[in-house]
Design goal:
Elements: E1 8-10, E2 16-18, H1 21-38, H2 40-46, E3 62-67, E4 73-78, E5 83-86, H3 90-96, E6 103-105, H4 118-127, H5 145-151, E7 155-158, H6 162-172, E8 176-178, H7 188-200, H8 204-225, E9 234-238, E10 250-253, H9 256-260, E11 264-265, E12 275-278, H10 281-287, E13 291-295, H11 299-308, H12 310-314, H13 317-320, E14 324-327, H14 337-351, H15 361-373, H16 378-383
Helix pairs in contact: 7-8, 14-15
Pfam family, one: Peripla_BP_2
Organism: Berryella wangjianweii
Family: Belongs to the bacterial solute-binding protein 8 family.
Length: 398
C-alpha cells in the first residue's frame, strides 16, 4: 500500500530517526514517568520540595514517630511544610486544623466549588490553583503516584486502607498517614482522626482546640435535654443523601442529630446497622412520628412523592398538621461537622422549643464554621436553597 516504511526515515548520517513526533513524545513520557517512580527513593533525600526547601536532609530536620488510625507506625518530618490529603474528609480535617496554606496538591474533585461542601467552598480559590494528585470524590480514591512523587510533600494524609497506604508510601517515598472511616461528629473516631492529623502535620495544639470545641457542643446539647421525661418524642428524617438524592423513603438509622438531642428515630427499629437506607414507607405511616424532617436539598424529590401518592401523606399526622421541617444535608465527601452540629440545634429547637429558645441554628452554623473553617457559610448555603424552615408538604409551594 506504500505505507509499510512510513514510520521511519533515514537521516543524513544513514541512521534511522523517528519520523512520528507523537510516537516520540509517548516514548519520552514513558521514560519520564518510569524515572519518577523508580527514582522516588533518590528524590526523598536530594530533591527540593515545591517551596524550594530540602526535605529532611539538613541537620536541623527532625522526625517523629506516630501510630495512625490503621495501626501503622509512620515516621513524619519536623517541621512539616507541605501536605497532600486524599480520600473522603482528609482535606476537610486539614482545613479544620488551619493548614490549608501548606497544602501543595489536591484531588481533581477539590477544584470544583460546591457550597454544600463548606471546607471546599471556603477554600476553593486556593485549591483551584494547586496541581491535581488524583480524581477523588464520587469517582473513588485513585492517587496519581507520578504526581505525588514529583510534588514530594512532607506527608500524605489518606483515607485509604492499610495495604493501599503501605504500597503508596513505598512507591512515592513519602510518609502516608491513614485516617479512619467515621461519619460521626461526637464520636471517638472523629476525635482520633483530628488528633492523628494534628500529630502528622505538626498541628497538635490546634487539633486539641478542635476536639475541645466539638466536645463543648456535645456537652451543651446534653445539658439542654437533661431531665426530659420518657418516652422521648419520635421523629423521622426523609430525603437523606446516599449514593445520590432520595425522596421520602431515603432515611438513616443512627441519625446523629436525633441521637444528640435524645429524639427517638423511628428508622432505627428494624435497621440492620446505623447508616442511610431505603425504608418501607408503610413502616413510617404505622409509626406516626411526632415530627418529620426533610433534607432541604431533596425537598423537590419529596414533593414529587407527595404528588404521586397524596393520600399516603395525608395519613401521616405530622405531615397533615404541618409538623415538617427542613434540615441541611451534611454529607459531602463524608461528614461536614459544622453542618451536622447546626442540624442538632435545629432538631432541638423544633422538638424542644423551650430548651432551645435562645438559639438561632443558622447563626450557630456561622459560629461553628467560623471556628472550624475561618468563615461564615450560612448565607451562601441559604442562597443555594439549603436552610432550616417549616414546610407544608401538602401545598403546591416550596
Amino acid at each position: 500500500m506504500g505505507h509499510a516504511n512510513a514510520g521511519k526515515v533515514r537521516g543524513s548520517s544513514g541512521r534511522r530517526a523517528w519520523a512520528c513526533p507523537a510516537r516520540a513524545a509517548r516514548v519520552l513520557a514513558s521514560v519520564i514517568l518510569a524515572c519518577a517512580l523508580t527514582g522516588a527513593s533518590l528524590l526523598s533525600s536530594c530533591s527540593p520540595s515545591p517551596s524550594g526547601q530540602e526535605r529532611s536532609s539538613d541537620a536541623a530536620s527532625q522526625t517523629v514517630t506516630l501510630t495512625d488510625c490503621a495501626g501503622r507506625t509512620v515516621e513524619v518530618p519536623r517541621p512539616c511544610k507541605s501536605i497532600v490529603a486524599i480520600g473522603g474528609t482528609s482535606l476537610r480535617l486539614v482545613s479544620y486544623l488551619q493548614a490549608v496554606d501548606r497544602v501543595v496538591g489536591v484531588e481533581e474533585a477539590e477544584h470544583k466549588d460546591v457550597v454544600s461542601c463548606p471546607y471546599r467552598h471556603v477554600n476553593v480559590k486556593r485549591f483551584a490553583q494547586l496541581p491535581t494528585v488524583g480524581e477523588g470524590g464520587s469517582k473513588g480514591v485513585f492517587p496519581n503516584e507520578e504526581a505525588l512523587a514529583l510534588l514530594r510533600p512532607d506527608v500524605v494524609i489518606a483515607n485509604v486502607d492499610r495495604d493501599t497506604a503501605d504500597t503508596l508510601q513505598q512507591r512515592i517515598g513519602v510518609p502516608v498517614v491513614c485516617i479512619a472511616v467515621d461519619e460521626g461528629v461526637f464520636t471517638e473516631g472523629f476525635s482520633e482522626n483530628v488528633r492523628t492529623v494534628g500529630r502528622a502535620i505538626d498541628s497538635e495544639e490546634r487539633a486539641a482546640e478542635v476536639v475541645g470545641y466539638v466536645n463543648s457542643i456535645k456537652e451543651d446539647l446534653a445539658k439542654r435535654i437533661a431531665g426530659l421525661p420518657e418516652p422521648r418524642p419520635t421523629a423521622y428524617v426523609a430525603g437523606v443523601n446516599f449514593r445520590g438524592g432520595h425522596g421520602f423513603d431515603g432515611t438513616e438509622a443512627g441519625f446523629s442529630p436525633f441521637d444528640a438531642c435524645g429524639v427517638t428515630n423511628i428508622a432505627d427499629e428494624g435497621a440492620l446497622k446505623p447508616g442511610p437506607y431505603t425504608i418501607d414507607l408503610e413502616k413510617v405511616a404505622a409509626a406516626q412520628p411526632s415530627t418529620v424532617f426533610v433534607e432541604s436539598g431533596n425537598l423537590g424529590l419529596v414533593r414529587d412523592d407527595v404528588k404521586e401518592n397524596r393520600a399516603y401523606f395525608q395519613s401521616i399526622d405530622a405531615v397533615a398538621k404541618g409538623r415538617v421541617h427542613t434540615l441541611i444535608a451534611y454529607r459531602f465527601y463524608m461528614t461536614n461537622a459544622e453542618v451536622a452540629m447546626a442540624n442538632c440545634y435545629e432538631v432541638g429547637r423544633v422538638v424542644y422549643p423551650d430548651r432551645f429558645a435562645d438559639v438561632d441554628p443558622m447563626a450557630k452554623l456561622d459560629e461553628i464554621s467560623t471556628f472550624l473553617l475561618g468563615a461564615p457559610i450560612a448565607a451562601d448555603l441559604e442562597a443555594a436553597g439549603y436552610s432550616f424552615r417549616q414546610v407544608d408538604l401538602l401545598s403546591d409551594e416550596d
